[in-house]
């Protein structure tokens, strides 16, 4: 005899809102939940609240295309994302939750000489950081993905690719649920449907937040939001050099497994992978104008379908099932903004552009260390807010999955 729905043990619990916490984290996506988990697991800081105005994983963490990789362009970026891949490799065991990480390899196709040059550059930067990454020719590309049209007659012939064997895909919802369950087990309070309406700052120091369920006093408040990062930072009086753009994605009906690798084409503005359920997941670059809209558009569907068919004409009979959009907070250099701000006790982990989900574990680990020790860990030191005033930008545009 099975359990009825309300007899299953809850993976995380509902709590009354306390009037004070040691740390309040705004945003219940992978970044916020990972920060809470590592605060508790690595530093013993358990009087922590994670607030989300909707439900956990309802923002970028549930809307991305679940791709993990560390083949970035700058040494700072490669080091940072590689730590995330390592944490992801051990995440199922750490959280005792199957996150279904499939390291199936990641291909970024080059269709012209300038992209091939960027791929070579990235491969060399990657190798120096001991990241498995190399440029391969069309024959090897064809061996890895037989369904790709690698003939020379196409409009954008495939001249080669950056091949990154440790890259792959993961079950993004499972990552959110795994961190939530593990943080909850350490005593962290997860408050869904709890919207932050204001942040209190006294004499240059944060003192708490006001929510739709009441006020909380806290000496540390962390902005782990995507999409709303500028609005939340504004509440504390901190300006963010961020603009928000939608990024659309779509999924097909399931078919038998045939695509064992993640395939990205910057020139064709598309990336594609096959889930364990057999669906193909497609994504594109961000929409061409700033907006908070998360509606799908016909323009995206037509564009993505046309571009996928240029790469894999055999897919012409497949049907799209769903499309959706997430919000991407773009910074001027395409790198995130992490660490303390001019308001004491107010920290940010924002500006993730189109790379946020894959950085969840390393961001949580580093933000937790920063909060617990008061020192900015070396791995996130290049990503401080002050770099925009000092001109120390970390240009990652060349490593974006597709052109922006
Ligand atoms: O950077 O790998 C990436 C990516 C995939 C989808 C959006 N960004």
The gist of it:
The chain is an alpha/beta fold. Helices cover 27% and strands 24% of the residues.
Write the layout of secondary structure elements.
Blueprint: E1 23-26, H1 30-43, E2 48-51, E3 67-68, H2 75-89, H3 91-95, E4 106-110, H4 113-128, E5 134-136, H5 138-144, E6 160-164, E7 168-169, H6 172-185, E8 189-191, E9 196-202, E10 205-211, E11 214-217, E12 220-223, H7 229-235, E13 243-252, E14 262-265, E15 270-274, E16 280-286, H8 298-311, E17 320-330, E18 337-340, E19 346-350, H9 360-373, H10 387-390
Parallel strand pairs: 1-2, 1-12, 2-8, 4-14, 12-19
Antiparallel strand pairs: 3-7, 4-6, 5-6, 9-10, 10-11, 13-16, 13-17, 14-15, 15-16, 18-19
Residues 65, 67, 69, 271, 283, 354-355, 401 line the site of pyrrole-2-carboxylate (PYC).
Structure description:
This protein is α/β, with parallel strands linked by helices. It has ten helices and 19 strands. It has helices at 30-43, 75-89, 91-95, 113-128, 138-144, 172-185, 229-235, 298-311, 360-373, 387-390; strands at 23-26, 48-51, 67-68, 106-110, 134-136, 160-164, 168-169, 189-191, 196-202, 205-211, 214-217, 220-223, 243-252, 262-265, 270-274, 280-286, 320-330, 337-340, 346-350. The chain has an eight-stranded mixed sheet with strand order 5-6-4-14-15-16-13-17, with helices on both faces. Strands 8-2-1-12-19-18 form a six-stranded mixed sheet, with helices on both faces. It has a three-stranded antiparallel sheet with strand order 9-10-11, with no helix packed on it. Pyrrole-2-carboxylate (PYC) binds next to loops.
């Amino acid at each position: 005899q099975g359990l009825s729905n309300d007899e299953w043990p809850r993976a995380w619990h509902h709590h009354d809102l306390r009037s004070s916490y040691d740390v309040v984290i705004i945003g219940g996506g992978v970044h916020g939940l990972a920060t809470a988990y590592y605060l508790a697991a690595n530093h013993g800081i358990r009087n922590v609240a994670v607030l989300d105005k909707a439900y956990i994983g309802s923002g970028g963490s549930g809307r991305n295309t679940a791709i993990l990789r560390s083949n970035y362009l700058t040494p700072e970026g490669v080091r940072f994302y590689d730590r995330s891949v390592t944490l992801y490799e051990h995440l199922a065991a750490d959280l005792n939750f199957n996150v279904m990480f499939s390291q199936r390899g990641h291909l970024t196709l080059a269709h012209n000489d300038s992209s091939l040059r960027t791929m070579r550059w990235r491969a060399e930067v990657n190798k120096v950081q001991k990241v498995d990454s190399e440029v391969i020719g069309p024959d090897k590309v064809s061996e890895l993905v037989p369904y790709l049209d690698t003939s020379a007659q196409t409009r954008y012939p495939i001249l080669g690719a950056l091949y990154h064997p440790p890259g792959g895909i993961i079950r993004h919802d499972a990552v959110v649920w795994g961190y939530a369950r593990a943080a909850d087990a350490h005593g962290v309070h997860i408050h869904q449907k709890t919207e932050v309406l204001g942040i209190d700052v006294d004499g240059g120091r944060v003192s708490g937040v006001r929510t739709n369920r009441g006020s909380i006093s806290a000496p540390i408040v962390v902005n782990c939001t995507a999409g709303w990062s500028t609005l939340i930072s504004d509440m504390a009086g901190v300006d963010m050099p961020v603009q928000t753009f939608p990024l659309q994605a779509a999924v097909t009906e399931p078919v038998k497994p045939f695509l064992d690798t993640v395939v990205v084409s910057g020139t064709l503005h598309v990336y594609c992978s096959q889930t364990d359920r057999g669906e193909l997941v497609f994504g594109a670059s961000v929409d061409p104008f700033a907006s908070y809209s998360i509606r799908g558009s016909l323009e995206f569907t037509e564009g993505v379908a046309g571009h996928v068919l240029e790469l894999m004409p055999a897919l012409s009979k497949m049907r799209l099932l769903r499309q959706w959009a997430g919000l991407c907070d773009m910074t001027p250099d395409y790198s995130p903004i992490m660490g303390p701000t001019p308001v004491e006790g107010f920290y940010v982990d924002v500006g993730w552009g189109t790379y946020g989900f894959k950085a969840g574990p390393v961001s949580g680990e580093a933000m937790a260390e920063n909060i617990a020790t008061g020192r900015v860990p070396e791995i996130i030191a290049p990503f401080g807010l002050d770099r925009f005033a000092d001109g120390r930008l970390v240009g990652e545009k060349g490593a974006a999955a597709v052109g922006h």
